[in-house]
Structures are given as structure tokens and as C-alpha cells.
Amino acid sequence: MESLVERLEKAVERLETVCQGPGMCGDGSSKGVAQYVQAFDALLAGPVAEYIKISKEVGGDVQKHAEMVHAGLMSERALLVVASQHQQPTQNAFSSLLKPISEQIQVVQNFREKNRGSKLFNHLSAVSESIPALGWVAMAPKPGPYVKEMTDAAMFYTNRILKEYKDVDKKQVDWVKAYLSIWTELQAYIKEYHTTGLTWSKTGPVATEGAKLPSTPAAGAAPPPPGPPPPPAPAPTCSSTDETASRSALFAQINRGEGITSGLRHVSDDMKTHKNPALKNQGGPLRSGPKPFTAPKPACNANPSQKTSPKAPALLELEGKKWRVENQENATNLVISDTELKQVAYVFKCTNSTLQIKGKINSITLDNCKKLGLVFDDVVGIVEIINSRDVKVQVMGKVPTISINKTDGCHVYLSKNSLDCEIVSAKSSEMNVLIPTEGGDFTEFPVPEQFKTVWNGQKLVTTVTEIAG
Prior knowledge:
Elements: H1 2-18, H2 35-58, H3 60-85, H4 91-114, H5 121-130, H6 143-165, H7 170-193, H8 240-254, H9 304-307, E1 315-319, E2 322-326, E3 334-336, E4 344-348, E5 351-361, E6 363-367, E7 370-379, E8 382-386, E9 389-395, E10 401-405, E11 408-413, E12 422-426, E13 429-436, E14 442-446, E15 451-455, E16 460-464
Parallel strand pairs: 2-4, 3-5, 4-6, 5-7, 6-8, 7-9, 8-10, 9-11, 10-12, 11-13
Antiparallel strand pairs: 1-2, 13-14, 15-16
């Protein structure tokens, strides 16, 4: 009971702090800027400013990417200012207000796609995978968990950065910490000010499509990074932010309760075919069954110029210490023979092809490949298979670790010298490991995909579930 009283007292003190002075509880402060806008400015001046600073020190593509991220955060701040001064708008008007944020998210992600050969590709990927978190403003009623989900999507790449630079370059480690702290602080900010969705003013005019979006922060907020941000790309017709806005509209309709049926038109008896047979002969023959399923046409490919866009060129080249094998199709004799221990291989978007890597190499990554066969001798680090389908990997020598992530269909052929290899899998299916026998054949073993988790009184215990059949 004493602890409960103590918590209530703290809550009262906090409410008194928020509501100091007349007309300042919830919507504003003595400076005329809403308290949650000031709190967002503090986030810009803290974690965001640190991230911009370290990104500038790293330089190159990371610095350019950071400027784009900053532009997206400033677009979000502009929307927060509008929300603090206006009442909640109609869904169409809200979608229009979300457009600058949606455009900037697309700019950030397009930069990653255009720079896949970058030496800092893991940095660009970590940002691109998590930048949709800016769409939390449209994710009612759980914006906080949405940001957490987007942050988790970046962890795969930030862990790779930490693994690569942990004992080599402290600046890169600091970059990871600074970037992730932005989303951690944003989750805390949302929990305090926008727990169930973007908080709109209860007074003032209703926001419209023409509502003014301020682009500069209040005094004391984080200064803009050096150099102008790149021009925004055209907004896609089916961006993730528009989808989240539509989802919010759906929840709003459902929450109307019984009022949701108020817009339905009453159908009288003379309009019902089972009570008025004459209607059956009007309007042509009736359909005897449900319409067969047809695949929906994608809205994003309406531009004919996108359909005829030229294919990316096929690559097999050594760039610094990285072998790049990209966009290969129906190539069955790809060979990399002149290898060194410090080199890595990055295989991207190859289809119906076979690649052989001779000698000893540091690491191999397969990304977005389909029906690819990979044969290699020795790897001293890790072989990673990401976002791929129907791939086969054969080890001729040794490899300590094979990682399979977001892949459907993967066969791993181990050699006698690589039986101690660790295979780590996540979000993947149809995985099989083939073990060599004395007769030279292979015995196939499926990798478990279904698990059972129980609470044993102290911790969660997870075991593989055997499917009877």
C-alpha cells in the first residue's frame, strides 16, 4: 500500500509540472510551443545531433545518408507542430500531411539501393531497414511497438557492423550506439506523449491539406547538418505510410460502434428479389457462383517507363578487397580463383546460376538470390544467406559458421572437415543439412522450423516440436 501511495504522489507531481500556469496543460507552454514539440526538439538536440556528428566524422555515404535522415525527422517535427495547433483532420487531409515524411523515407531507402557497392553498405542497410519508424505518427493505436519493430529490423546489420569493427574502429561502434539511441529515445517519447497515437489539439481549427508545415525548429534545437539535403524523390502511390494511414482509418471506423451502420441504406421488400421475382429478369443474367479469384494488379507499377527500365549490368569483379558478383542470370560457369585470405565475396541478385570460389576467403554473403548453387573451398569467417530462395551451398573444406536469414529453401552440403560447423537460422523455411557418408553419398537432415516454449517457473524453455504424421 505504501508503494502505491508513493507512486500516486509521483504521478500527481508530474501532472502539476505539466500543467503549470493557465492554458498550458496538454497543448502548450509559456513560449507558445506545445510541450511535446519541445520534447521532440530535445531529442533532435540530443541523440540526433550526436548521430549527425559521428556520421560526419565517418564521412562518405554515411554522412550523406544522415543528412537525409535528419530531413525526415524535420518533416516529422513540422507535422507535430501542426498537430499541436490543429484538431484532427479528415483521413484524406491527414494522408496529404503525411506525404513529406513518406517521400523522405523513400529517399533514404532509394539511396541504399543505388549504393549497394558501398564499403559502408551495412550502415546504409541498418538505416534503410529502420527509417520506416518515422511512420509511427499514423500507427494508432500502438505507435511505440511499431517503432520497436522497425528498430529490431536494423539489428541484423548493426550487429554485423559491431562484429566487423569491435576491436578495429571505435568510431564505428559509437555510430551504432548513437543511431540506435534515436529510436530508443523516440519510443520513450511516444510512450509519454503519444501512447495510443499522434496527439492532436482539442482547440483550434481542423487541420487541412493546406495547413502550413513549419520546417525550422525552435531556438535551442539541433542545428541542420552541413550541406543541403538531396531533393526528395517522387512519392510512390503505395508507400508504407499511406498503408498505415489507411489502417488507422479502418480502426477509426470500427471504433464507431453501432454508429457504423448509420450510413447504410434501408432495403424495402419491393427491392428484394426473393419477395419480388420480377426483379430477377431485370439487369441481365444472375451470376451462378462466386467470381473466380484473380490476382490484383499492383498499383505501384502503373508507370509504363518502369516496366521497360533496363536491367542492371551483370558484374563479376574485384573491388578493393570485395568480390562483387551481381545480377547474373543463367550463368553456370562462374568461377573466382585468385583469392586471398582478407577478401570477401558479396553475391547479389543472381538467378539460375552456379558460382565456385576457390582457395581460402574471409567471408561470403548471398543476398536476394534465387536458384543459386555455391561451391567454395574454405571460409575463415562466416557464410551468410539472406533474403534468398532455393539455394544450394556446398563446403569442400572448412567453415566455422553458416547463417541463414529470411530464406525459403536452402540445402547445405557439408564436407567431412566441416562437420563442426555452426548453422544459425532465423525467419527461414525448408532448410536441410546434408552430411557425407562413408560411401560418398549424403544423408539429408531437416533443420527444425517449429518450436514449443513453456515457462518452468524460473525462465522460458524452448524445445523443438516434432510433428507427428
